[in-house]
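Summary for the steering committee. The consortium agreed at its last meeting that each partner would contribute one worked example illustrating the joint modelling workflow. Our contribution is presented below. We chose a case with several input lines so that the handling of multiple components could be demonstrated. No manual editing was applied between input and output; the record is shown as generated.
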Amino acid sequence: MSESGTLLADVLQVLLLQTHNTRTVVLSTALLGMASGLVGSFLLLRKRSLMGDALSHASLPGIAIAFLLMVKLGGNGKFLPGLLAGGTLTGLLGVGWVMAIRKKSKIKDDTAMGIVLSVFYGLGVAMLQMVSSVPEASAAGLESFILGKTASMVTQDLVLIAGVASLTILFSLLLLKEFTLLCFDETFMHSLGWPVQRVDTILLILVTAVTVIGLQAVGLILIIAFLITPAAAARFWTNTLSHMLLLAALIGALSGWLGSSISALYPNLPAGALIVLVAAGVFLFSMFFGGARGVLRRGWLHIRLRRRVGRQHLLRAVFELLEARGEALAGWPPNEPVKLEELLAKRSWSHGRLKQLLRQARREDHIERAPGSWVQLSESGFAEAARHTRNHRLWEMYLITHADVATQHVDRDADLVEHVLGVELVRKLEQKLTEEGVALNLPASPHLISKTVEPAS
Amino acid sequence: MIWLLDDTWIVITGALCAVACALPGCFMVLRKMSMMGDAISHAVLPGLAIGYLVAESRDALPMLLGAALVGVLTALFTQWVGQFGNVDRGAAMGIVFTTLFALGLVLIERAADHENIDLDPSCVLYGALEMAPLDLMTLGAWEIPRAALWLAVVLLLNLLIILLLYKEFNLSSFDPSLASTLGINATFMHYLLMSMVAVTTVASFEAVGSIIVIAMLIVPGATAYLLTQRLWVMLLLSALFGILASALGHVVAITVPTWFGFDSTSSSGMMATIAGLLFLLVWLFNPREGVWVPRRVNKTES
Amino acid sequence: MGIDAVLEDRPSASQRIREVPSHPDTVPLAIDDLTVAYQSKPVLWDIDLDIPEGKLVGIVGPNGAGKSTLIKACLDLVPKASGRVKVYGKAYSENRSLVGYVPQRESVDWDYPVSALDVVTMGTYGRIGLFNPVRKKHREEAMQALEHVGIGHLAKRQISQLSGGQQQRVFLARALAQDAKLYFMDEPFAAVDAATEQAIVGLLHELKEQGKTVLVVHHDLASVSQYFDWVVLLNMRVVNAGPTEEVFTRENLKATYGGKLALLDEAGQALRDSLR
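What follows is the complete predicted structure of the assembly.
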């Protein structure tokens, strides 16, 4: 009891930022998460997510060089802003080389990034090992840039992180309109006479800033998770850019807060890895349950589509069989039982599929049991079938007569064609159908339908 | 420069690794999935940790199996996230491998806490090529570094698979839709390639580290790609560039730093660097379409 | 007896026969009820189509009408939401060897390091089988196909060094090397020179004379009646399908292209003149 009490107290103390050290760590990682969520969203939408990976790996030789220079000049080799400046330089150099390779050879994007990433990384490791033999100063701790070590950060480092992160957030908000256009429609932006290249470069500089300040906290391997994961998670929930940015920043901040809080409770576990895992958890949850593009939602939409297509096929097949039987004059055909064999002959259903469709239709109360191998539509099923058949023919006619605009408007699931196209147009289509003799079997004045017709608003 | 037998072994081990990587790597470059090598080589970490925790020892086999399995899973998860989540492939890859790597770091820390045994994540990253000649095993009259033997086996395996399925790899890389209409299972070819990469990565990491794997998967292949217009020449050239980078890389690693008063440095790091330099030279000066060579007009009339 | 019971009771002879509409083995392509949707938005609706043997079939329709999707759905390259496709009476996966495919030119990476001959040889891979190497015989077949399309002298050329028309001929030669009975071609006439266009037309007629069936996605209305003897007018649904002289009328075109017909370029103008 008391033990769990102290644990709870510990958790609360950490989550509520009550000790000074945790406060700075948590605050700066949360700010870092927020900034990278924002910037990463643009990167994701520009399909350049892995650029951050090439960039972070390419910063390693710069860090080693900066260390060496600072030591040789008699300074403190581990002066963080100096190291990060070196990393920024080689990082940008690497990104520049990626762009150049892509532009000046047949080599594609991914390979260009892979080359820069692996070569700079190899060079960086070789140089780190070299500088570790410098007699003047110990280079121990420089490897923490690879795997990250939040615990080794001092308050000034945290202040630096928080400062740069805040500036990045500020800049992305100031340039929101420009970045949005850049991601959405580069060509249009060009046609407006806006400096596409310059805006792109600014975005890249912001990405570099976030990447480099995140190096010490999470390491160069994991930092791209900060850039990609919150943004990709946010994408599942919304189709609106501003909402996505807000959400990505929130998820980033949340991951930073929770991840570093957990690591404060379990000091052995690396904070960077924990933050990445929290973000990955949020991503996984969003991927399945996301309201806009989540797996479940899209799967459900797909099932619903299949069901509707099946239901419409079945009802229309029965209705058309009934029509074919009748005298083919105005008005509805009588609702009589239909033989299963006729249905199977009408469409390409297998036995299994038809059985499935009939079960579904019976659940929806569209058909009634009939003796033997017969089925009969229920009253509501009959009305539904008449409606589907009518809609189907109207849409068909619409596709034929308004082909230039048709495909954007067609909505086969609309309850009534009128809701989409308006009464006026539907009248014309009906008239056209009648002229061509197709519509003979359509109810002349289907009261069930016409009563509910409202003009499209 | 003092050259010892060990140095020869280091170069041979590095070269075996380079060629074993370069062969499947050529297809990675052609299939526009170069970053997958980076992803897989990082993502094997939790596999090692799990293999270690399950077997409760540093016995090599369970760790290698675990790692190879997670390597293939990386490709599978990337495919799933991309397909079911409708996420851009690059982003999907980044999410999957960082998550797995983070999981690996945490698992290793847990293992260290509970078992009091140190499993250093950085060994996966850098490897210790310099240590390879110390772990010898006898094969007939020969004393061979264990790592070299392992890598030779993997190299032969990769070579065999590529020779046997040359035309299938070729077609499914060039035109996957035609491949599938001809009844060649493009998905199977994809995962076969990913398995080759995963196994090669795992066989390499202990001896030479993941740096050299990532570099050798892509850089020699890309260099060869710039120089030739025949697939088999590309495969051959990439192997040659791999060997060249290994030899030069080691020489540079043990000589150049001493000129400036440093100790010799990481050979695998330098091998990657030299591979990059070779690429840079070919990119700039290759006679066909180099950056600083006037482009010949060799397109014919239509 | 309920519905389920009747259906459960399947093996009675009369019900077997009801696997209809049944397509005899001589119908190269029979599509029933095909619906294809991207996400949950339908691209093709309730397509029913029977293609007779030995015809050159043009698939015509406005942008976004689903022409390429139709071909891809037939080849199982995109998932179907419903429906069934039969190739010579069997499911496509059982009759693969009878089908040849010419994808759109942009669908592959022309920087890929292979020669023209290598690409054409790929057409024979279906016959060679798994693990078996390419033999001299197959390369000779490929060479013949290349010569057939008139670019035998370019066999060793890397594919990026070919002009657009030559690249298209390489693809056609590859289809010839496939030696199929039913061909799908996705916009083979797109952005090719006049000489290549004539070569393709000649080739199509040769294929027809050999009794093969060719479906071609086509976008140039002016040449339709010249090139094809059968036409499918497509606009999410099959607007009309049949012999060119019956289907390719002004009325039907207006139906397929709607208001767009008025906006068509010179080709459309020529067509309207010829129809007047």
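The first helix of chain B runs from residue 5 to 30. Chain B touches chain C at residues 30, 32, 164-168, 170-171, 173-175, 177-184, 225, 228-231, 233-234, 298-302 (CB under 8 Å).
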